[in-house]
Structure formats: C-alpha cells, structure tokens
Batch of 4 targets.
Target 1
Amino acid sequence: MPVEQWSETVVLGQLMDDPQFTDDMVAIVEQCSENPQLDVLLNLGEVSHLNSSNLAKLLKLRKVVQINNQRKLKICGVNTQVWGVFLVTGLDRIFDFVDDVPSGLATLQLSE
C-alpha cells in the first residue's frame, strides 16, 4: 500500500516514480489538509528521479504539514541520484531526512 495511516497521527507514504508519485502526493496533501494533526514520513526508496513537478508537490506538502499545521515531515530512503536533486536545488536544507522507515517512525513517535 503506497499511502497508509500508520498510526492516529502518522501517515507513511511509500512513494514511487510518476505517475504514482503525483497521485500519492495529492492524496497525502488532501489527508493532511483535512486532518491537521498528522505527521508524515515519505519513503523515497523506490523513486529513481524527481522532476520539477515532484519537487513542487514536496514543497506544497511541506507547507501544509510544517508551516500550516505545525507538524513534522520526514523523508527517508533517498538514493544517490535523488539526493543529488535535493543538493543541487538546496532543498536538502529545508527538509528533514532520516535513514530509513523504522528510524523515521521512531523519530516521529518520540517527538509527540
């Protein structure tokens, strides 16, 4: 399941390349807009590249979760090519990264 409600306050998105990436991101943004109590963990382990549209969706999700809702957004499983996109765009400085899904879930649970 690409997007799942992991707990009452955590959504886990197991993202893949487009077009699934776009569909899942839209669903997560809607979920977080409807429920401002949600933290989000995105696993990019199956994502091999990011385009400008994907980056825009990540930034929109960040705005909804971190800025509007004052909740946490973590990203994990980033491969070397995708990490390069974060570095080149400077987005590595505004997103929070963790190594893997268990680390991310633990971090979100501890911060409640």
Note: Strands lie at 3-5, 10-16, 39-46, 73-76, 96-97.
Target 2
Amino acid sequence: MDILQKMNEELKTTTVVITHNSNIALMADRVIKMNSGRIEDIVKNQFKKNAFEINWS
C-alpha cells in the first residue's frame, strides 16, 4: 500500500483500490461504498492516513 500511495502522490495519478478492508479506506481521498453493485455513499476523507499509520491486524 505504501508503494501505491507514493505512486499516487509522485505521479499525480488516480488509484482505484477495491477491498473489503475498511482500514484501507482511511488512506483514500474519497471512499465510494457499494452494495450489490449500487453506490450507497461517497465520503471525502478530511484527514488521510499514511500507509504506516494503518492498523493491519
């Protein structure tokens, strides 16, 4: 996740990560929550976390 984060910042790219791990969402600028293929919510993070700040356990 650290490498994806660095690429996103340095290359100014958009990165899409699809996961069931809600901790990863703490790293995102924007989180799109879906259920059965439909968008349920879109949230913008005010305080993004660094990959090393995420609790992976």
Note: The chain is about 20% helix and 25% strand.
Target 3
Amino acid sequence: MFALSLRTAACRVAVFCLALAAVLTSPPATAEVSVGLLDAAWSFPAAAAAIELRYTTANRYGQAAPASAGLYLPPGLPPAGGWPLVVWAHGTVGVADGCAPSHHPQSERNRGYFGEILGSGYAVLAPDYQGLGTGGGFSYYNTLVEGRSILDAVAAVRTTPVPLSRNWVVIGQSEGSHAALSAVSLYDPTGPAAGLNGAVVTGLRANTGPSLREMFRSSSTGSANQIAYAAYFLTALQQLHPDRVTPFLSDFGRDYVAQANSTCLADLTAAAAGRRPAALVADPDSPTPTFEADIAELTDLRTEQLPIDIAIGYGTADIDVAPTWTEQFGDHLRTANPDIQVTVTRYPGKDHSGAFLASLPDTLGFLRSHL
C-alpha cells in the first residue's frame, strides 16, 4: 500500500504539499508499488517535492525483485496533461545496497544540472538500479538489470496518481549512458512504459569489451577511478561465471574485488592506493580467458531497429571513459537505424563530468523538441 511520511522540508509550498498529500494517500493501482517522501537532504534544491518510489523489476537472474527510485517534482502546479518526464540514469556509484543515489545527498554537479531541468518544468525520475537501496547487490553494467530498472520505474510511477505526461526522455551519464541505451534496447512501444521519445547520453563506454581490455593493460592511463570501475565489472562477471574470473585474479585482486561488493566508488578508489586495473589480474593483457565474450554477455545492447532519436555527447579530455570508439558507434547507429536521428556532439577540452555539464544547453533543446 502507499506509505506517506510528510516532511515539510521536503515539500516546500504549502498549497502544493496539501495537494500532494491527497495524491499520495489515494489508493494505489497495484500493491507492488509504494510511495513516500524522501528526506530533503537527498533531494535537489530546485525540487518542490522528492518522492520515494518502491516497485518490482528484474534481478540478474530475470526474477522479480524489489527496486527503488526517486521522483523529483518541479515547482508550481502541473500543466494540463501532467509534467513532462525526464528519467535520469546515473553513473557509477558502486554495487552495494548502501550506494543507492536516492538515499545520499546529490552532488554539486547534479544539483546544478537538474536544477535547470526542474526549473524548466520537467519532473525527474531517477531509478537506483535493482540491488541498490533494496538489498541483493547490483549487477554492474548488466543490460537486463539496468534496462528493466528504468522501464519498470516508468511503468510503476504511472500506477500512482502523480500527474505526469505520457511522453518521456531518458538521460544517462557514464555507466548511466549504458543504462539508458539498455532501456532503449529493451523498450516495447506497446508496453506499460510506452511514450519513450528520445535518449541523451554522455560519457558512453562504446565497444565495451575492447575498451575494457585496454583499461586493464599495464600501459593504460586514465583517472584513479578506473581500478574501481574494473573491480565492479569483475564482481558482475563473477556473478555470471565465478569459475571464469576468480582463478585469474591476483592476490590483491581477490581481496579488492571482494571489497568492491560492499564499498562505494570514492572509498573503493581510495583503498586502491594508486594502483591501476592491471594490479587486479594475473595477466593484464588477458584479464580472463573468456573476458570479451563474458563482457558481451553482460553488456551487449540491441543497436538495430531502435524507435527513438539518440543524442550522444563526449569530452575530448575524458580520462575516465576514453571516447575512442564514440564516433564509430554513432556511425553504426545511423547506418543501422536510418529512420531515426542520431547526433554525436564533441565537447573540446571537456573531461568526463565536464562534457556532461557542457551538454546541458543541447539537452534542454532536445527535451523541448521531444517532450
């Protein structure tokens, strides 16, 4: 049933709060969805209300499992037809239950970015991904888990009386770019999440298998976060095929990958003490004997017959996720999908987060034309 815990700090406009309280205490359309108000400390300053959504999605085995999301509403009353919906696919935070973004303060970068989105009149739905915030551990970069977490969140929020328009656009950054495209890959235009009109992705890891193989090499360079990214990938591969991963880790790698299961990004990066991804495996040139095949099993996307426009952005100075294959991936999408518009925008001199921020004016233009 619906759970309501009104906190005035999380709902700042008195008349709106009373209307929202009436909405949240209305009977639910399904017993599998519950809502309440999130702590204001975990919200965006520009949001008039922050709502916690609990719903059912799929875990890494394809079984029904609980998931959580934050829904952030813009100031003012909804327009006729409801607020247009932006779905936020977040980047890497970790794979442990306690890393769920909806239960942590938002970063300064995200507060600024989504302050503009909310101020422009869009509601923001932000799934945590299954396993974050609901126990069980998140299967990192798992196409099924990420894609279903997003699509099922949209379907779930539609069972509530919150006034949202039918159309929605997904925005993803870094790992979230893969999550956003996972949702596009699994999207059914006749299903309960119908109305997807576009995707905007930045910091995309294109050609995942080869790019990760390069990241593991002893000669690789890049940000300090890369060893944590590598460990999270190895946790996901262990979940799929432990016998294909664990025997090929170094002594340090076994301890560090075990730590990755319970440690969020910043702390896990610090625990590496400057080591590179190569330190995790016995053979940095071949992290595991079936590495690229297993990465493909985990992360592969449908890239043909996609039904919606896609905007891709990248920074030329990105050292977290090298944009080596981004333009090539955009060319592939255009060739494979001649009936949609695929744009690739280059942000000179911008790093991983910088490209995300630099893309905001283009993203707002995309939202105006697709919502």
Note: The longest strand covers residues 49-58.
Target 4
Amino acid sequence: MVSREFQETAARRPQSATNFALSVVAMAVGLGLVWLIAPWHQPDMGRAFQYLPLIPCLGVILVIAGAELMLPRLRAARPGGLTQRTLRPLDLRRVCVRLWGFAATLGLIAFVYWLLPEYHGDFYGPYWLFLRTLAPFAVLVPLYFLWADPRTGESRDEYYVFGSLLLGRTTASEWPLIGRHLLGWTVKAFFLPLMTVYLDSELRSLYGAWGAAEPATMPAYQLFYHLSYAIDLLYCVVGYTATTRLFDSHIRSVEPTVAGWLVALICYQPFYSVIGRFYLQYDQGTFWDNWLQAWPTLRAFWAAAIIVLALTYALCTVSFGLRFSNLTHRGIITSGPYRFTKHPAYLAKNLSWWLISVPFAGGMGWNTMLRDCCLLALLNGIYYLRARTEERHLSRDPAYVAYALWMNEHGLLRRLIPLLPFLRYRAPTGAGTGAEESAPVPQRPSN
C-alpha cells in the first residue's frame, strides 16, 4: 500500500537530482575538448603517454561541479553531502582513520586486479593509463579529507568505519555501512575499467568516421552513431570518477539483491562475451544497411531512426550529470528523457538493436529468423528484469516512489498501461521509507 502522502506528492513531478540544461552545456564543453585532443588521439597514432580522454572528462566535471557549487538551486538538496560551514572542530585522528580506510580500500582493489587474470591482458591498457594520468591528483586526497572532516554530516562515515574495522574498533551496528562501502567500490572497480577502455576505443572510432574518405555506410550515420556512444561513455567515465560527497554525487545505496547484480553484470564484459556468443547470438550478419540497399530512401529514414534512438540513449546518460552509475542510487533523475518515461535508456537501446540487426528480415530463412527474434526478445527480457530490480531498489527513496507514481499518470507510455498492465508502477511494501538516507544500510551497450 502507498500512503496518502505519497499519492499527494505524486501529483507533481519531483525535482531532479541534476539539472539537464547544465548537463547539456557541460556536454558541449566536453565535446569541444574531444575535438581539441583529436590530433593526438587518432586511430593511426598509437597510444599516447597520457589518457587523453581524461581532458574532456575533467572539463565536464568542472563545468557541472562549479555551477552546482555556486548555484545550489541547480540540483535537488539531499542529506549526506558536505556543508559549506563547519559542523564540528577538525579532528586529525578522525582524518587519519579515514585516510587509512581509503588507502586500504584502494589496496584491496589493487590486490583483486593483481589476482584475477582478466585484468592482466592488453585489453585494459587504457585503464592503467587512465590511473597513471590521474595519479598526480592523489596529492589532493589528504587535503580533501582535512577540509571535509568538519563539514560532513556523518562523523563516522564509510571511510571512517572501514578504517576502524581494520584497526579493530568497529561495532556490529556499522557492518551495514561497511557492506555498502565495499559494494559501492566493487561497482566502481568493475565498471570504471570497462568504461575507460570503451571511451578510448569509441573516440578513435569517432575520429576515424570523421576523417574516412569512403565509409562503409552513410557518412552522417557513421559519424552520429559513434558520436552518440562517445557522449554516453564520456558521461559514464565522469560518473564513476566523480563519486564524492564534495559534489553530492556519492553513493546513497547499492543494489541489495543478488538478482539485481546478476541481470546487470551479464550485460557487460567479460560475462556477455560468453552469454552473447553461446546463448544470445541473435544476428547472423544481415544488418539494416545491407537489407535496405535496394531502397535508398527507406534506408536513409531507417538510419535516421537508429540515430535518434542512439542520441536519446546518450542524452539519458547525460541526464545523470556527475551521478551516473550502474547498481547504485546517487540521486533520482526526473529530467531530460526521464521526464517522459522511467527507463528511456533501456527503451531506446533495445529498440535500436531491432533496427540495426533486423532479425526479422528473413534473409537466412524462416527458421533462423524466428530463432533470432526469440533470442533478441530474451535479451530484451533481461533489460526488463534490470528495470524491475532497479525500481525495487530505488523505491527505498520517497522521491522515486513519487516520481514513478507521477509517471503512471503522465508518462509517455501511460496509454499502454490498460493493454500492458505490467507497465504500471506498484510501490513495493514499505517503499519510500527513506531508509537509505537515514540509516547506514545499503548505462556501455552490451553489444
């Protein structure tokens, strides 16, 4: 049951945790820096000594963070961030414990990278370059903890309790906070390497599409397709890099269920390389451009539809500003494409796969066509499960309950709810309690 308070709140759309217009301005700055580094990041120039895509990433972070710090009205106020005024005297002992917890966290992640063979190949070369390029900024970490100590609302935050755990000074009540801390860093340690690698590759593809004399498909399609995913990945790297209370972009809660983790992780490497190849291989080489070769006008409209979906998907990631992340809650987004539906990214991505791979074309025979359509539908089903597990997780926040109930009445798909009742949001029992704020408890395309 949803309380009358939530029903009344749902009469209006909750404020978004980010300002979409600001994120778009930052995107323009980031793209300008992408073109600025182009001469040193071309596909045929080999690898640079620094991770050059970090430059547009930092540009996006500085624009959004600077504007939000100077104009707090650009973001929704949430508890748990840092205040501009001091709340308590500086405690050097507390700072040292936090630094110890932070260093121990990085050491644990480094050990996992060293232990797992997955991270020993050349594939993750751009990520190690990213870390080396970012390393000089490590001198700011002690200064940040010194500045943040008297300004954080929680004197015993996740770094403090983790450091205290390693010093043998924690309590049983702090274990949920430690669990959230470790799960949050697990998310970051898994996804940040992938996104930095994909961004490096996608920028090279974008530069190649811009400079190609005879592209395989329509030049505009190639350019905008790679541009869309470059924007998406740029904000993915920004989101995983800028996870800090300084920008109010810290992790508020982490997906609490095994099912939620499974349906998310199987959509990414290295797991999807197995799932996609041996279980969900839905395309047989008959893609849209080959299928429509004889109908150039229809081919152009088809290409435009794919680009619209790809750009929509990119703008969904842009909507998160500094707060993009899988499997975590870092603020409820209700602006941009999320003004129209709860899961615009998944909707755009899955529709684009049908238009790109055209498994219904039938070029390989009816048996193959039917099988490929069923396999792609199974992949769509995985994303449906991702949407459902994310909704259950985010429903701990009253803002999401209000947003989802508002979307039932005002969303783009509201007229389909009578025909497809599963589209209606139903708040889980106990949803909207705000537990993730008051107690310490816990978008790269898959192909």
Note: Residues 37 and 299 are 33 Å apart (CA to CA).
